[in-house]
Amino acid sequence: MNSQLQVMKFGGTSVGDASCIARTAQIVANAAAHFPCVVVVSAMSGVTNRLIEAAQKAAAGDSSVGASLVKTLHKQHAAALEVLIKDPAVRQSVMKKLDEVLAEAKRLCDGTALLRELTPRTLDELSGLGERLSAPLVAEALKALKVPSESIEATELIVTDAFHGGAEPLMDLTRERSQARLSPLLDQGIVPVVTGFIGATADGKLTTLGRGGSDYSATILGAAMDAAEVVIWTDVDGVLTADPRLVSDARTIPVISYREAAELAYFGAKVLHPKTLNPVMRAAITVSIRNSFAPDRPGTKITPEGRSIGGGVKALTAIRDVALIAVGGPGIVGLPDVVGRTFSTTAELRANVLLISQSSSQNDICFVVSDSDATRTVEALRKEFAQDLAHHKVEHVTVVSNIAIVAVVGENMRGTPGVAGRTFAALGRENINLIAIAQGSSESNISFVVEDRAVEKALVATHKEFRLETAAN
Length: 473
Ligand code: ADP
Ligand code: ASP
Ligand code: MG
Hints:
Bound molecules: adenosine-5'-diphosphate, aspartic acid, magnesium ion
Oligomer: single chain
Helix content: 40-55%
Strand content: 15-25%
């Protein structure tokens, strides 16, 4: 372990404007006075959405979108720079660097509008621009506090496969490149400020790690650099017992296990990208979640074993924007390979299957994928089962939208009888209809499918049933 190295990641709201960047820079400056730090930053809040929207408009043939995008982003970043950097010469040279990145944005939008075609690779190039604009700003803000700093594009560090929009890191190469590039800087007391969200293939094509992927960038770099800790600075006090936007009395959980946090992240707790914990699990690196707007609060620590007290249920989460796909009909009982073929089809598409439910007395296999994967999954399944559909061995491949998965998570649920019963009784009292239910064999998660409009009610009822607002978890 790199005895004291800390990787500190700041999300979009933590670098949302000049005052947020100044607060972030102060947090880093305080830490850097005590131990070596690598900083990872997201784009300023709203920028990635704006870039993706522009890409889509360009693909529809809007030839003016590039120019207006550049104007808006120039204004936003120049305004922050104006407040953060007093020296006009420094300000000018930083803005020149940012304008070069913005010129790329214009070229990409113009080219897309001309061809009326948006490839996954171009979408990655465009959507990854926000971090390339924010990292130099944060590095300059640090220099203004007399902390030596250098902004670095993660395309130099994180090597990924070529799956645009959701790339996976190749850890050996990433480790090699990150150490070669970052260690000399750290040895000189320089704080590297690395762009989150992006990486590049071994031959240099820019990729992105998926929406919200800067959390993942931080733990990838934490593992690659053998860091002592990864701290994710965000806009809430830590991991809460439920999404505070949906459950008003949600409470911060002081300590949580890798497994619990991973389940929450996987089942939609936006505070962590679903893959955040993968890179650090083996090395047992602690991940903390802290509030950059209230840096004195202790936050949440995610550790290998968590803290095993409390009544079992630790937290709730929900994934919306998902669809339930069913493959079935009476004939499938005689087709032993339906399950295999269904899931090799989803695997080929890299469609992320979030929940599977099959009961032997029923004739359906149903599973849940995100809305964005639903259409192509159904199309691929109809193709895979074309013969069987024609011969009525498989009767249907159907899709239901406007549903959501709610997950009840807690490592100690194992051996705590009655959690499922209490959950479903609470939902029953609220007249919430359950569309499907699944429980993993690890028993650290019970998840169920409800109509999307019932999500809030389901969360509030379950939160209350397990007294999560008061429990000493
Ligand atoms: P960042 O920009 O820092 O990456 P995100 O918006 O991606 O921040 O994630 C933080 C948000 O996640 C919070 O503002 C909160 O609304 C939401 N959230 C959802 N579920 C939870 C949870 N269980 N605990 C904490 N925050 C959650
Ligand atoms: N800026 C990227 C996004 O909005 C990555 C991140 O913020 O983590 O998805
Ligand atoms: Mg995030």
